Amino acid sequence: MLSMLKLPTVPPTIEKRTVELGGTSIVYTLRRTGRRRSIGLCIDDRGLTVNIPLRASENWLHSVLHEKASWVVKKLEHWQVKRVVSPGWRDGQISFFGDMLALCVVASLFETPPRRHDARLFVYVADVTDETMIGKAVTQWYRSEATRVLEERVAHYAPMMNASPRAVKLSSACTQWGSCTSAGAVHLNWQLVKVPVRLIDYVVVHELSHLRVMNHSPAFWETVQSVLPDYPALRRELKQERLPAW
Q: What value does the mean pLDDT take over residues 32-36?
């Protein structure tokens, strides 16, 4: 009696990728597996995971991602706000460039942007007990400040390094402070606004260096060192700054 031979199961392949959806740079996990016949998207506290068949084409993947763009962006924003908010945030503290700001929540009938005064951030919301509303306001303020500061730092270092990024965009990556695409776009995590400026400069110089050397060869680190001679110390310090999970 002949027995059926069981073919070995091909383990799934996993990689990190970046895609721009709805004007937002999103880092996602791509998981190829032989058990799938369709493309599935999953969003949770770890971010976006895309499960696809082993032989799925890039065109098919691209089509599905852009078809679901608005849903993906909306769901990721929901998780970000959910992670931002905690019961201690009402009149608590937040990190800002390595320092702490006192968070002062003020009841207001009008949509007034948060306002910083010395070491305090005043957040105006209709319901001071609504944690989601508070978290959304703080996140929007963070992103606005990140845009301003990161653009300033790139404008400072790019001419010095003879680097010309085609675009500088905010990233919401869960595991990366920054990235650079082969097309010349630099993506910087908006949560950099929480760390000291010297660490922001290291990330900016690191990514601008990739415009000249796309790998981490000795030539790449020489480029970084030419601008930041103390980069090894900055690199070690940044590793101690765990990327917040919100």
A: 83
Query: Are 21 and 65 within 8 A, CB to CB?
Result: yes
Q: Is 22 left (phi over 0), alpha (psi -120 to 50) or beta?
A: left
Secondary structure class of 164 (helix, strand, coil): coil
pLDDT in tens, 155-206: 999 999 999 999 999 988 877 899 998 889 999 999 999 999 999 999 999 9
Question: Are 133 and 126 spatial neighbours (Cβ–Cβ below 8 Å)?
Answer: yes
Output the pTM of the full model: 0.65
Name the helix (H) or strand (E) containing 80.
helix 69-84
Number of Cβ within a 10 Å radius of residue 113:
11
CB 190 within 8 A of CB 77: no
Distance, in Å, from the CA atom of 31 to the CA atom of 41, rounded to the nearest integer, reads 10
Q: What span, in angstroms and rounded, lies between the C-alpha atoms of 229 and 119?
A: 32
- Reported in sequence order, the residue ranges of 164-227 that DSSP labels E, i.e. its strands, are 167-171, 178-180, 185-189
What structural domains and CATH numbers belong to the chain?
13-83 (no CATH), 87-240 (3.30.2010.10)
Give me the pLDDT at residue 227, please.
Answer: 95
User: What residues pair up with 133 in beta bridges, in sequence order?
Assistant: none
Q: How far is CA 166 from CA 163, 187, 208, 209, in A?
A: 10, 11, 11, 14
Crossing angle of helices 231-240 and 218-227, rounded to 10°: 100
Q: What is the DSSP letter of 92?
A: -
DSSP bridge pairs for 169: 187
